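Note to self: keep these together.
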Amino acid sequence: MKKLFFLIVTILFYAVLLGQNIPQNPNQKDAQNRKQGKWTLLYDADYKNVISEKDAVYYRIAEFKDGKSIGKTRYYFISNGKLHFEGEVLEETDKSVEKLKGFCVWYYENGNKMREIDFDDKGNVKTIHQYDRNGKLYSQDVLDAINKFTQANQLYEQKNYQEALKLYEEAKPSLNVDILGGADYYYLISGIALCAKHLKTYGKAAKYFEEALQIAEKYYGKEHSEYGFVLEQLGDLALLTNNIVKYDFYIEELKKFYEKTKGKNSKEYIAILNSAAFSYYYKQDFEKAAKMMEEVMPLQEKLTGKNSQDYAILVYNIACCYYELKNCNKAMPFLNEAKKLFEGLNLQSSNNYKGAIQKIQNCK
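Structure:
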C-alpha cells in the first residue's frame, strides 16, 4: 500500500475556479538540486505533487532550507483559496509529503475544522480529533475506529500484516464512506485485502479487492492508477488460486487500462501482453502462447532493444512453446538466438541459458 501523507483523506467534490489567483514564489534550487527559500507547489486530491493547475486540488506554500521544509507549511483549496492544512513536515519526497510532526490541523472547504492530529518527533500519531462538516466532534466509537485505522496503516508499513489486519477489521464496522470519504474508505478496504493477500487468505483478499475496485472506479475513475493497481492484484490472486478464467478476464481489463493510460508501446502494456501469453502457456495452449509472444517481439525490441535480458527471455519463451509442441524446426531458430543473446549478456549461469542448451541438444 502506498504511504499516505494525510492519514485520513477526505475526497472532495470540487469545481476549480478559473483564474483563481495562486500566490507565486521563486521556487529555486541550489547547485546540489536542493529546494531553497519559499515555494508554491500544486497537489491533487491524494496529495501527490502535480505540475498542471488543472490536475490540482490544493496549492501549498512552504519554505525550505537545504531541501528540507522549515516552519509551518500550509495547503489551500484552489477552489476558493481557503486554508486546508497547517502543520510541520518531517519527511517528504519530490512526489509527496510522507510524515508530519507536531500539532497539525485540517479544514473543510467551508472553513470548519476537519481534523486535529498531534504527532511525535518521529511522525507517530499521539492523538486525533475528527469533526464532521458542521464542526461537530465525532463520537468516541468513530474516533477509536479512526485511531485503529491510522495504527493499522502504520503496522502495514512495518509489514506487521497480522496485527494490521486485526485493527483494520476492528475499525471497519464504525467507518463508512460518509465518515472517511471515498479515498480513505478505499484505503481501508484495500488495506484489508492487501493484509489478507500477504497472509495467504486469498478468498478474503479477492472479496475485498473486488469491493476496492468498485470504490476506485467511483471515486477515482477507470483511468486512475489505483484502479489499475486493484486490477493487477485481482489478476495475481486469480493466478495464485489457479482460476484461469478470472485471470484471463483481468488480463483483458488490464490490457484496455494500459492501452488507454500508457499506450501500446509502454512497458506496462507489454508486460500485460506477456502475462496473457503466459496464461495460454499455463493452460498448455502453446500455439496461442507462441503467437502472442511473437506479436510482442517488435514492441519489446522497440522498448528495450534486442540486447536486453527481457528480449532474450521473450525469445527463449517462444522457443519453449514450439519445443512443447514438439516442433523443433520452429523451436531451433529461437533457441539459437536465445543462446546467443544470453551469451552476449553473460548469462551463461542462468537457468534459461541452461534450458536453451539442453533443448538444442534434444532437438539435434
